[in-house]
Design goal:
Radius of gyration: 18 Å
Largest sheet: 4 strands, antiparallel
Number of domains: 1
CATH topology: Neuraminidase
CATH superfamily: Kelch-type beta propeller
Pfam families: Kelch_1
Number of helices: 1
CATH class: Mainly Beta
CATH architecture: 6 Propeller
Strand content: 35-45%
Length: about 290
């Protein structure tokens, strides 16, 4: 079953602008539920995936309404009820067809961002459940993976955004820092040491934002990735996100998903009012789908 997902032009070259929201259906473990966000359309599609997977897959928006998916807990052996970690990598196309790519490092719970022909992937868990510092990139021209410099600290469920030529990496790391990866030097800088644990990053119209659940919302100043100001209190409070899932900017909102005990919680950040608006999306989904 397909839904017509309209093509969009990307404002300000922002490759994260997609017009559908997706989540993993934990009851079957091999399906992706796709909701259209265009005018809160009531269209929905169920997409069958290459293998049984858990919700801990890295889902990264690409240009041209494509989605890059990487790494997961595989549930192919459903009788044993014991998952295995894979480096499964594939692209979901606008028509919801799937293109299988070269496998990456076996990992799950990573975070990724597309920039300049590459997807950069950070952190996650290895096959024995240990949080990793490892980082890698997938190049679409060469169609292969390459290891890059590791994160300074182990991190999982990373939230990443490209800003002013740097890749800012937050997420759930048990660290009170955010790291900026310099592609040219293959190295990291750190900043904002007052932010604790979970950090969710996004950008729109030349500004980058950091959402710190239970803390504050920060905005970049003067196009400087190392200078930030607190602009609002973050009323949404979480001690530690299990997973910050599919993240994207659509129109005047930044959407993301938190997976908690097999359930999907949908949230959005209002880029105009610069505050969280988490009730609207979940109420809408409950009305139309749940």
């Amino acid at each position: 079953m397909k839904t017509n997902l309209p093509q969009k032009s990307y404002n300000n070259g922002d490759s994260s602008k997609l017009d559908f929201l997706s989540s993993l259906n934990n009851s079957t473990r091999n399906q992706l539920t796709v909701f259209s966000l265009k005018n809160f359309s009531q269209e929905k599609s169920i997409l069958n995936l290459p293998e049984f997977i858990d919700e801990n897959i890295c889902i990264c928006p690409l240009p041209d309404n494509k989605v890059f998916c990487y790494g997961n807990l595989s549930w192919n052996n459903t009788e044993s009820r014991i998952p295995s970690v894979t480096g499964l990598t594939f692209i979901i196309n606008p028509d919801l067809s799937i293109e299988i790519l070269e496998e990456g490092i076996k990992c799950y719970g990573s975070g990724g961002v597309f920039y300049d022909g590459n997807v950069y992937v950070y952190g996650g868990y290895n096959d024995i459940g240990v949080i990793e510092k490892i980082a890698s990139k997938y190049n679409f021209q060469d169609k292969n993976w390459k290891i890059i410099s590791s994160l300074p600290v182990p991190s999982s469920f990373c939230s990443c955004v490209e800003y002013m030529g740097l890749i800012l990496v937050g997420g759930a790391s048990r660290s009170n820092k955010i790291f900026a990866y310099d592609i040219a030097t293959n190295s990291y800088s750190e900043f904002l040491s007052e932010i604790e644990e979970t950090k969710i990053l996004c950008k729109s119209n030349g500004h980058a934002y950091i959402i710190n659940p239970g803390g504050f919302i920060y905005e970049s100043e003067n196009n400087n990735p190392f200078v930030w100001k607190s602009i609002n209190k973050c009323e949404w409070s979480r001690d530690f996100c299990d997973l910050i899932g599919f993240q994207m900017v659509f129109e005047n909102y930044f959407y993301f998903i938190e997976y908690e005990y097999g359930l999907c919680n949908y949230y959005r950040f209002d880029l105009v009012r610069k505050c969280m608006d988490f009730d609207t999306v979940n109420n809408w989904l409950r009305t139309h789908y749940l």
